[in-house]
């Protein structure tokens, strides 16, 4: 991927361009110290003067009101100037309001992602928060030296600002001291905070740019440049950022490594801005030049296909299995996003969606976009979803529009980390409450399964299993403590609903053909062939985890995809690392899903791996094939469970068999309730006795007027073994009514067992 730049040979502005932006994806604007407010034609790079600003107005920064909240072109922009004023300017260039914001120059202004607030900073060291109508709300900070840059996080709950060589993060919701850290050896000149990835970038006079997490921990430090960093900005989806310096524009991945470096002839790049669709960049130079750049040569791979964006409206598709098979796909408008999965290539342009099948490249299906710029594109086997920042829209591969799903909350953009898709479910993180997930049906837009899931901590990354029915659909997620959890989309009232399956994992991804889950963290790859084992038998889950240590990944690796039996990682330096996994786990899961138990058992016996036996035991127990489960547990040397399964398999009462399978998963209360509900109170009483749930056992015995003396007898035997005396008033009361006669108790138990046969 690289930038293709275009600038006019003669600068249209006669002085430094310190404020640039996008009013829409097809229109960029610039303000200069020559007091002109220009609108630019992207094709010819010719400018039209919109307005002439007052002679006393020398702009320092520009921030457009969030486009996702205006449904079309941006309404207004905030402009700061060297005389300390904050100006609210309409699209036409008319100044609607001006206020005195700072003593000395007002250096920067930035709208929050949800449009509810505006922050400014200036030479007087103040950081101030304003309403949309430019009414002062509060002074967030007062520093002793100038504050050169400030910005918001994605939830508008925290503010980042820089002063001298340090950066500060201030929370707006809690009264705590700001987080402070030394960012650069010299003055920090520019900062930005991605609302989607929660990463921070900073540039300084030391000639370096750095990537940080939201706690101020450094993730990447660039080599030192000859000149200071003068501007930088994240793309709308947070996957890229651009850095400007003297005659230089550098495109970088969010991990910090460079895609390309463009040498310019415009002086220092004073300001940069991304278009709303994330495919174009505008930059303003100190010599009066305005530079337009767009992304080209973006490349993705899918199985044997290699797809490259050669031009703004041309994609080349190459079959790696053939030396001559090459297709060139033209589009009418500028390409903004494209993705290939499940043998379909989906290309999104500024006005249409092109849907190609890998079996017929010459006959695409065309769909007109409703409105807005597409910021997210996710595919699954039967449908795909696009997002415009606020809502999700689902389409079939035949081009049929299915429905619109409105995401709860306001604020930051949607990205692949906080949205997951399967054929029957969309999981999306709440925009305001990061600890909450919502589930929707992509075919009807109605609530799916349990509707929502609330976690105890903020959720960072989510994924949905791609195989099986809705009742088997598993959602996996990581939280801020780098722990991995799984939950059923439809739990049917089961408790606990969520299970922790791993730690020290930062990224996760489900396999495209099976239920396998892969996680990346701490320099190793962890694979859970069957995450739902957490709800079947947690002992099996621990025995079924496969871990691989991968050396040389660097500090900030990325999990790209997990297809078939191959995991693809990207190192911190940008290189791809394919990791091959054993194909046997996927084959075994396919046999289990197809109920081919004889083939599954033969495969496990042939390979002789405990991981496969654990998968087989869990799959068989989940699908109630007790014969296969008994064999698998035997191979794992789980003698007690083999005996338990043998008893369950040979029990004549199907209700008792079902309850015993529930008990195998460790859900004692559910098994107890099932036995009582199906008319087996004796079994329920004995279950509670064997698990030392004495009060529940006594309650059942009294309720059904049977085996009270049995409960009292086993309770007394239990206390005698530990040298204790009965102190529970409920049991003392029953002991006064019943006499413990072990011969009679044994006769009662024998009679109950005889009934089962």
From TrEMBL:
<dbReference type="Pfam" id="PF00400">
    <property type="entry name" value="WD40"/>
</dbReference>
<keyword id="KW-0853">WD repeat</keyword>
<dbReference type="Pfam" id="PF23387">
    <property type="entry name" value="TPR_IFT80_172"/>
</dbReference>
<dbReference type="InterPro" id="IPR056456">
    <property type="entry name" value="Beta-prop_IFT80_2nd"/>
</dbReference>
<keyword id="KW-0969">Cilium</keyword>
<protein>
    <recommendedName>
        <fullName>Intraflagellar transport protein 80</fullName>
    </recommendedName>
</protein>
<dbReference type="GO" id="GO:0005929">
    <property type="term" value="C:cilium"/>
</dbReference>
<keyword id="KW-0966">Cell projection</keyword>
<dbReference type="InterPro" id="IPR001680">
    <property type="entry name" value="WD40_rpt"/>
</dbReference>
<feature type="domain" description="IFT80/172/WDR35 TPR">
    <location>
        <begin position="612"/>
        <end position="756"/>
    </location>
</feature>
<dbReference type="GO" id="GO:0030992">
    <property type="term" value="C:intraciliary transport particle B"/>
</dbReference>
<feature type="repeat" description="WD">
    <location>
        <begin position="181"/>
        <end position="213"/>
    </location>
</feature>
<feature type="repeat" description="WD">
    <location>
        <begin position="99"/>
        <end position="131"/>
    </location>
</feature>
<dbReference type="InterPro" id="IPR036322">
    <property type="entry name" value="WD40_repeat_dom_sf"/>
</dbReference>
<dbReference type="Pfam" id="PF23335">
    <property type="entry name" value="Beta-prop_IFT80_2nd"/>
</dbReference>
<feature type="repeat" description="WD">
    <location>
        <begin position="10"/>
        <end position="50"/>
    </location>
</feature>
<feature type="domain" description="IFT80 second beta-propeller">
    <location>
        <begin position="297"/>
        <end position="584"/>
    </location>
</feature>
<dbReference type="InterPro" id="IPR056157">
    <property type="entry name" value="TPR_IFT80_172_dom"/>
</dbReference>
<dbReference type="GO" id="GO:0060271">
    <property type="term" value="P:cilium assembly"/>
</dbReference>
<dbReference type="InterPro" id="IPR015943">
    <property type="entry name" value="WD40/YVTN_repeat-like_dom_sf"/>
</dbReference>
